[in-house]
Write a sequence for this structure.
């Protein structure tokens, strides 16, 4: 194989642009979780990603910017896809699917570990808290409130204050598991049946308050 062919093959194997950036973030998340923010270095992340440090710095100005990207992506994953609010299912179905996605993400080992890292780093980089909130809880709350307004307009629900209703539902679904996952990470991960029972009860409570049949 000549040098030109080898170069072409290497180029095809190496992700470029947004795909490469996403790969770097994935590697960085694993490094931060294993070594913590302080002990993680851009050199280590670049090396494990099979990239040069110069390549990493072309995508991220510094370690803080890279960590913010990791936090932002995880927050968006917790929030879930916007498509979940576009379906034509009954409110009970839409709320159950949303709630189950949230608690399943909440009890994953990586999620609370990353949240603890972000909280610990906030004293040095307060902007991380805003990134985490705006891309995670706030985004989910806004999407849910918009869905509740639309469902009320269709006569499927009775949410006079959709913002308040969204906060109440999200709190009922996630608060207990968020606290447990953050403060007691060694506790046994809840099974699927437990999570489904919890979310189903939260949905039933919400519908009893905001449903059309009272």
């Amino acid at each position: 194989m000549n040098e030109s062919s080898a170069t072409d093959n290497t180029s095809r194997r190496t992700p470029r642009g947004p795909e490469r950036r996403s790969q770097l973030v994935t590697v960085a998340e694993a490094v931060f979780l294993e070594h913590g923010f302080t002990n993680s270095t851009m050199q280590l992340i670049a090396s494990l990603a099979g990239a040069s440090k110069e390549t990493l710095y072309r995508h991220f100005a510094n370690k803080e910017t890279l960590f913010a990207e990791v936090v932002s992506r995880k927050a968006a994953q917790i929030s879930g896809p916007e498509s979940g609010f576009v379906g034509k299912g009954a409110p009970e179905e839409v709320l159950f699917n949303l709630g189950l996605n949230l608690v399943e993400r909440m009890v994953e080992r990586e999620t609370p570990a990353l949240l603890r890292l972000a909280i610990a780093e906030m004293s040095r980089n307060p902007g991380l808290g805003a990134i985490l909130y705006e891309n995670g809880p706030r985004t989910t709350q806004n999407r849910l409130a918009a869905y509740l307004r639309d469902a009320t307009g269709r006569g499927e629900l009775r949410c006079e204050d959709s913002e308040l209703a969204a906060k109440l539902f999200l709190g009922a679904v996630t608060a207990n598991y968020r606290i447990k996952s953050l403060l007691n990470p060694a506790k046994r991960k809840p099974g699927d049946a437990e999570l489904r029972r919890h979310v189903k009860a939260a949905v039933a409570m919400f519908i009893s308050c905001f449903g059309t049949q009272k």
Observations:
- The domain at 1-60 is CATH 1.10.10.60 (Arc Repressor Mutant, subunit A).
- The longest helix spans residues 17-39.
- The mean pLDDT is 85.
